[in-house]
Amino acid sequence: MAPRTQTEEDSNTAKMKRSSSESSFVSMPDEGPVKDYRDYRVRKSSLIATVNWSHVLGTYLPSIFLWGVGVLFAQIVYQVILDMSKKVEHKAQPDDQINFNIETVTAVILGVSEVFKSLFNNYIVAPLQSGEGGILSPHVKITALVLVVIGWIVNMDNPIYMLAFSTFKAPDSWKVSHAEIIQMMKNQKCFTDDSVSFMERLLERSGTGQSTAWPPGIVQCLHGKETDRSIEASRKEAETVIFDIVESALKKAKLHPQEVDVLVINCSLFSPTPSLCAMVISKFGLRQDIQSFNLSGMGCGASLISIGLAKDLLQRRRFSGGKALVVSTEIITPNLYHGNERGFLLQNTLFRCGGAAIVLSNSWFDGRRAWYKLLHTVRVQSNSDEAYHCVYEAQDETGHRGVRLSKDIVKVAGKCMEKNMTTIGPYVLPLSEQIPVVTTMALRFVLKIVGNLLKSCGQEKVAAKLPNKKHYVPDFKRGIDHFCIHAGGRAVIDGMFMLCFDLFSFA
Question: For 444-465, b where at least 16 C-beta lie within 10 A, e where not — what string?
Answer without folding.
Answer: beeeeeebeebeeeeeeeebee
